[in-house]
């Protein structure tokens, strides 16, 4: 039987690859045989990751790009197409988190969260889908969150801008999935609960928050590094050829309660 999860010969683009989940998933795609272009603002980190991917026998390209700026996104996509000639997989993962209630979030902070988490995904998709439609093939994966489905992680601080942004990601995934299926492009999302990264390290350093999380989460623990990779590889590979518009929550059972 063919390996349904094989990515040999595929070209993947991963945004938000300079740390955390994006970095893990970029390496996961490479481990399945893909060449990987990596995007973020911190170029020095991307260069190190590109070397690591190359040491795995794959090609890589580090591209400095702020996903909220259309000119930078357009130029990044052109640079990647010039080097690799195609894009098979797009992982829209760049994101920021922010706590606060609608009562006190500053307008600029609201815009920063929505611009990064939603507009960034829109701009990357806009410039990559064009090319995928021509080739009648593409796998788009969006990083959502349980916070796009539920209103609060237990009784923790409100995350209203983040809730709004990740809810938008989930329904943008449905919309894009429905529109692009006819062109052989699948669009799916992954909804993690909590994983230790730069984004979450401050909250997770708070013992009472961590205890509360572990006591509510059916699995009784945080996600471990690598536990999102199976979902990412599934959506990136032909194993998910008839699956689109879906969000797979990888959350130790959080959204099942
Ligand atoms: N960790 C969790 O528990 C968790 C749970 C649910 C969902 N998520 C989602 O997972 C994704 C990755 O988060 P993470 O936990 O891995 O956090 P992280 O370690 O803070 O990584 C965030 C990544 O996004 C990039 N980024 C932020 N703003 C950007 C911009 N304007 N342009 C380009 N890149 C930008 C950052 O790179 P630069 O700063 O170098 O640009 C970094 O690589 C996010 O979408 C987050 O919402 C995380």
UniProtKB/TrEMBL annotation:
Q: Which GO terms describe its molecular function?
A: glucose 1-dehydrogenase [NAD(P)+] activity
Q: Which N-terminal residues, if any, form the signal peptide?
A: none
PROSITE patterns in the record, alphabetically? ADH_SHORT
UniProt keyword Oxidoreductase present: yes
InterPro entries tied to this protein: Sc_DH/Rdtase_CS, SDR_fam
Question: What are the entry keywords?
Answer: Oxidoreductase
Q: What is its EC number?
A: 1.1.1.47
Protein family: Belongs to the short-chain dehydrogenases/reductases (SDR) family.
What's the protein called, per UniProt? Glucose 1-dehydrogenase
User: Species name for this entry?
Assistant: Clostridium frigoris
């Amino acid at each position: 039987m063919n390996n349904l999860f094989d990515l040999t010969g595929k070209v993947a683009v991963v945004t938000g690859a300079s740390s955390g989940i994006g970095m893990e998933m970029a390496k996961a795609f490479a481990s399945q045989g893909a060449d990987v272009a990596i995007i973020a603002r911190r170029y020095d980190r991307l260069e190190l990751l590109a070397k690591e991917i190359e040491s795995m026998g794959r090609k890589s390209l580090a591209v400095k790009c702020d996903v909220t700026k259309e000119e930078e996104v357009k130029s990044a996509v052109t640079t990647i197409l010039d080097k690799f000639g195609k894009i098979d997989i797009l992982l829209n993962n760049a994101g920021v988190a922010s706590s606060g209630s609608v009562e006190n979030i500053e307008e600029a902070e609201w815009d920063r969260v929505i611009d990064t988490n939603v507009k960034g995904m829109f701009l990357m998709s806009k410039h990559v889908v064009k090319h995928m439609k021509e080739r009648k093939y593409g796998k788009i994966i969006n990083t959502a969150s349980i916070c796009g489905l539920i209103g609060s992680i237990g009784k923790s601080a409100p995350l209203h801008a983040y809730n709004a942004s990740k809810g938008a990601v989930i329904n943008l995934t449905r919309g894009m999935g429905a529109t692009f299926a006819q062109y052989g492009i699948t669009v799916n999302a992954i909804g993690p609960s909590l994983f230790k990264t730069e984004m979450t390290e401050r909250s997770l350093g708070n013992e009472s928050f961590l205890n509360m999380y572990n006591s509510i989460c059916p699995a009784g623990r945080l996600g471990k590094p690598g536990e999102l990779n199976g979902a990412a590889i599934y959506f990136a590979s032909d194993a998910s050829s008839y699956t689109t518009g879906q969000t797979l929550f990888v959350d130790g059972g959080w959204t099942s309660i």
